[in-house]
Amino acid sequence: MFMILISLFCFLQPSLVFSASKGEGFRTYWYDKGAEITRFELEQVRYGEVHSGHALLIFVTEPFLPDIQVKADSALSQQKSIPILKLNFIKRFNTGIYDYSLMMSVFTPLNSDHNLFNKTLKVSTTRQDWCGQVYVQYNLEGNFYKVRQNSYFEKEGDSSVNVPATFLEDGIWTSIRISPELLPQGEIKMIPGSFFTTLHMASIGTEKVIAELSNGVDDNRAISKYTLTYPSLKRTLSIIFSRDFPYYISSWQETCIQGNGKDAKVLKTRAWQTDKLMIDYWNKNSVEDTKLRKELGLME
Questions:
Q1: SS3 86
Q2: Where are the alpha helices (DSSP H) in the chain?
Q3: CA–CA dist 36, 177 (Å, integer)
Q4: CA distance 20 to 25
Q5: Within 10 A of 159 (CB to CB), how many other CB atoms are there?
Q6: What's the predicted TM-score (pTM) here?
Q7: Strands 70-71 and 49-65, sheet pairing
Q8: What is the rounded distance in angstroms from the CA atom of residue 34 to the CA atom of residue 66?
Q9: pLDDT tens digits for range 42-73
Q10: Residue 163 near residue 170 (C-beta atoms within 8 A)
Q11: Does pLDDT of 221 surpass 90?
Q12: Which pLDDT score, from 0 to 100, does residue 281 have?
């Protein structure tokens, strides 16, 4: 049952004050404990209906080489790296007889004395279902994102385009966890999320969006809601997260019109947190470690 009804929260505009996220507490949480893995129950809109599934948000810090935009693996390359917060965002759901698997990886620099970057450097997204596959990648190159897409489907095909390096919706998820007070607000230009563009086979480019950040309370917990409204797409995304560090994301809701004319209807994709685990998952790959999936609610 969907326990967190976003529309029923009482949200207020400013004062948008967040607890401190820098210093030793930040380093201890993000560098000393492994990766934060959170499972969400998912209700995903597809083909004009709502399908059940689950989603995972996996946040972890890594050394990243900004020139070639890959993880720094060797000791030598790590000396040239910058710290980033990586998000692996996974959605799994079924549509009738066949299943969908979506995964997005976001690479956003962390604040440091040696870090000159203030935008998400890279996003890579895949979509797989029984019909075919889609892969899209964003790389920050100067004042543009170089976007490459490869798709099985004729409407998308293989393409490459440069998009002005404005705000990325995909980068909002990591920005919330790093510095929510810096989230853009007002009427701005933004590149819609790659899950949305791949599922809707939408053109990749900038869109006008109205961004709002507000405060609320849930069960005596201070929470915030970040809402993106795309007038031209008739789409709204709202993300709810804790106002105290480390700014846990607890739920989200995406509203979009499905169909055309008299058959058009508003449907909502929703997700809410069920399980959380902080662990060095890359060291937990034995048969014995399978039991940890039960702690995350992933055992069927």
A1: strand
A2: 24-32, 75-78, 169-178, 194-200, 292-295
A3: 11
A4: 9
A5: 13
A6: 0.90
A7: antiparallel
A8: 22
A9: 999 999 999 999 999 999 999 999 999 999 99
A10: no
A11: no
A12: 95
